Amino acid sequence: MIVVGVGLAGLVAAAEAADAGRRVLLLDQEPEQNLGGQAWWSFGGLFLVDSPEQRRMGIRDSVELAWQDWTGSAAFDRPEDHWPRRWAEAYVHFAAEEKRAWLRAQGLRVFPVVSWAERGGGAAHGHGNSVPRFHVTWGTGPGVVEPFARRVRAAVEQGRIRLLFRHRVDELVTSGGMVTGVRGAVLAPDDAPAAGPPRAPWWATSGTPPKR
């Protein structure tokens, strides 16, 4: 199995595939210091629906409301939207059901405060989240990346994942309508520092962290 990119999605996909018994080739055009991609530099916000954190704050949420908000923004009004709609519907249910427990099993914890992201009435022009659903991970972006980076590194040491940096993928190789490989280029080594510092948690400049 080939996974392109060592951002959060690539790390999760590679780790899950390796644990399922697949041998994985994981490629990225960036150097090793950019492991985790944009997720590393993010604030570590996670989309959860009807979570204990929301309920403790008195936020009334549900699968039905989250799906209404999602479809209000996405529309899904074209024939080619069939599979994106199916994926989105499955993800909303995942965010309301096993996602939180699955993330906790990876070692992730979230702040006991839920905030806004893509709030309806803002940049979404009336669409977006109608209630707060932005759950921030302890450790912010690096905290989200670390459990999956650890799993990938362990699988590399065990020979279940082959991880190659500075390998750019330019095209997919197909046969009989199926993807059978990739084609690209090996880039020159790059030891430049990563793109920027990770964000500090919101309490870093305002006092002590809240209790877990």
Structural account:
There is one protein chain. With 212 residues, the chain is α/β, with parallel strands linked by helices. The chain folds into 2 domains: 1-44 and 140-212, FAD/NAD(P)-binding domain, CATH 3.50.50.60; 46-138, no CATH class. Helix content is 35%, strand content 21%. It has 7 helices and 8 strands. The protein has helices at 8-19, 37-41, 52-56, 63-74, 82-96, 98-105, 140-157, and strands at residues 2-4, 24-28, 45-47, 110-115, 134-137, 161-165, 167-175, 178-186. Strand 7 (167-175) and strand 8 (178-186) form a beta hairpin. Helix 1 packs parallel to helix 7 (140-157). The protein is globular, with a radius of gyration of 19 Å. The relative contact order is 0.21.
In short:
This protein has 212 residues and is α/β, with parallel strands linked by helices. It is 35% helix and 21% strand.
Topology:
Elements (H helix, E strand, L loop, with lengths): L1 E3 L3 H12 L4 E5 L8 H5 L3 E3 L4 H5 L6 H12 L7 H15 L1 H8 L4 E6 L18 E4 L2 H18 L3 E5 L1 E9 L2 E9 L26
Parallel strand pairs: 1-2, 2-6
Antiparallel strand pairs: 3-5, 4-5, 7-8
